[in-house]
Amino acid sequence: TRSYTLAVVPGDGIGPEVTTQALTVLNTVAAQHDLSFDTVDYDLGARRYHATGETLPDSVLEEIRGQDAILLGAVGDPSVPSGVLERGLLLRLRFELDHYVNLRPSTLYPGVPTPLGSHVTERGPIDFVVVREGTEGPYVGNGGAIRVGTPHELATEVSVNTAYGVERVVRDAFARAQARPRRKLTLVHKNNVLVHAGHLWARTVAAVGEEFPDVSVDYLHVDAATIFLVTDPGRFDVIVTDNLFGDILTDLAAAVTGGIGLAASGNVNPDRTAPSMFEPVHGSAPDIAGQSKADPTAAILSGALLLEHLGHPQAAAQISAAVEADIAERDTAAGAQSRSTEEVGEAIAARASAAAAEGVAAV
Ligand code: NAD
Ligand code: IPM
Ligand code: MN
Predict the structure, then answer these.
(1) Are 315 and 30 in contact (CB under 8 A)?
(2) DSSP calls for 9-47
(3) Residues that are catalytic
(4) Quick check: ipTM above 0.95?
(5) Backbone dihedral region for residue 268 (phi beyond 0: left; psi -120 to 50: alpha; all else: beta)
(6) Which of 57, 143, 261, 296 has the most CB atoms in a 10 Å sphere around its CB?
(7) Domain 1-104+261-363 matches domain 114-257 at the CATH topology level
(8) What are the E-state strand segments in the chain?
(9) Where are the domains of the chain?
(10) Each residue of 258-284: pLDDT tens digit?
(11) Per the record, where is site Important for catalysis (predicted)?
(12) pLDDT, tens digit, for every residue of 141-196?
């Protein structure tokens, strides 16, 4: 048995609800592949903050750094000023652990309800991945405000883009594009306005592209990209973009491919100098927290990305196949809401173990 240590950060709101289901499915599938996860739960988030004032103590960060991977639910709570937990916990983990590839795949599975018209979905499969830069951009916290609260207030959030940071994520995106059948990379930016960062990104894509002659490259301004995500998402294969554009595009991508309840992500450190972290794209959803209404599918699929990252693609595929089978049979009229969070998790876990019992190992 190959055994891994797994840091679990359930977090706030629906985070613990969906993480519980993700762990059930992960452990079910792991057992069938001779893998095991030694989990350590970290009580981080709003409760800890109110109790001690801490968001992510150094000692906890160092402990997490020693684990093989991290599973996170969601972070953020209305009782805590906006940004405290998001920056102090979630972004701190991404930055400190150098999660420079924020991987966000989108696939429209058969039978999944989508706001897209049939004239769009019938054009062909929708299956793309956003490679969102995870450690730079406007997220670094380079900014400030003066004369706060006065009519003369001035606030800045400077987007930081380094040649080093852009090149490494662009190279990763090219490699991913090269490994996919369509071998297509789309850079999304706003280089008609953000000329300094935008041109750095464009030059980097052109230069790194020389190493990947079999990958075709195109470019879209981010505003136009939102059009095509709705009118022709089938055109996308791999999208590479900065931290903020990637954040926004992936909520839209989720919305057009079945909803935020299905969107999984990996905060990946491709150099493996620290553990990577897997989490749903969605947040803590305070509006439905504590009601067992959250769809745990995104968290469960994040477990598949985790297995893939650890080098177990067959185990990962078993989770995706179980999810795909489950969503194919969802009552689309009633939506996922017709079952509780636990029911969805248990149904997917049951499918995953049945698949193994029948020897129908997923492809
Ligand atoms: P959100 O993703 O939490 O919720 C947006 C909408 O989607 C809500 O109506 C919510 O009910 C719904 N939703 C989200 N996940 C769902 C699920 N699994 N099943 C069914 N419905 C789901 O985004 P928000 O409302 O902008 O943010 C709420 C809090 O979460 C904020 O504090 C924000 O900072 C934080 N946040 C955290 C993360 C993260 O931890 N990665 C991501 C996004 C937002
Ligand atoms: C996400 C979230 C985070 C982000 C926030 C909560 C910091 O929206 O994971 O998409 O902007 O990256
Ligand atoms: Mn987001």
Answers:
(1) yes
(2) EEESTTHHHHHHHHHHHHHHHHHHTTEEEEEEE---SHH
(3) 139, 190, 223, 247, 251
(4) yes
(5) beta
(6) 296
(7) yes
(8) 2-11, 35-41, 69-74, 101-107, 127-133, 143-146, 154-157, 184-189, 216-221, 238-241, 264-268, 276-280
(9) 1-104+261-363, 114-257
(10) 999 999 999 999 999 999 999 999 999
(11) 139, 190
(12) 999 999 999 999 999 999 999 999 999 999 999 999 999 999 999 999 999 999 99
Ligand 1 neighbours, Cβ below 6 Å, are 14, 18, 74-76, 86, 90, 260-261, 279, 282-288, 294-295, 298
86 close to ligand 2 (CB < 6 Angstrom): yes
pLDDT at position 337: 62
Query: Residues in the chain, how many?
Result: 363
Residues 114-257: name the CATH superfamily: Isopropylmalate Dehydrogenase (3.40.718.10)
The C-alpha atoms of residue 96 and residue 113 are separated, in whole angstroms, by: 38
Closest by CA to 298, choosing from 269, 331, 270, 263, is 263
Sign of CA dihedral 67, 69, 74, 76: positive
pLDDT at position 52: 98
Question: Closest Cα partner for 243 from 89, 101, 56, 87?
Answer: 101
* Inter-residue contact 221 to 182 (CB < 8 Å): no
